Please model this.
Amino acid sequence: MNIEQNRCSQVTENGTRLGCRYLVKKNIGDVGIPIPGFRLRLSSALSCLLLTVGLLLLTGCGRPSGPACYEISGLVTYNGQPVPAGYILFAPDKTKGNDGPGVNAEIRDGKYRTPAGQGVIGGPHTATISGYDGKKFQAGPISNPMGRPLAVPIQVALDLPKQASTHDFALPVNAKKIK
Model:
């Protein structure tokens, strides 16, 4: 990552530099995320995903005051083949009266499992599945270690049990492909 000094005010008598800011040269998208002393630009979608995952981690299950959570695992396929890489976001369906923390599970070689100490609360959920080809993608300043998307993320409504469970997903072949 190429960082350059963007603005810097004068140096004080004791040698402290005031008002220095740095700019990340490889900018992605159009939304700036302030970091003390740095400015990083990310796409709106990536910013939303990072914010959602961060909030889910902060409000996760398994805490003494939180709801009981249950592990979920399974397989994810696309066109009959294991999805090489991706994510599944399990979010309680508030429209059906299910309220609580969600959880994100990573897909690797067609398999996923919720992280240790985290899981689903059971009941109605929406699973948002994003599958990638697993081949690192780099185009100018844009990169994705998971590769190119296989199709647009899909959402699946499901009713999960209040116990550890498995659930397999087959991504539809006719899902709109991203170019």
Q: What stands out?
A: The two ends are 26 Å apart (CA to CA). The chain has two domains: 3-42, 46-171. The chain has a mean pLDDT of 74.
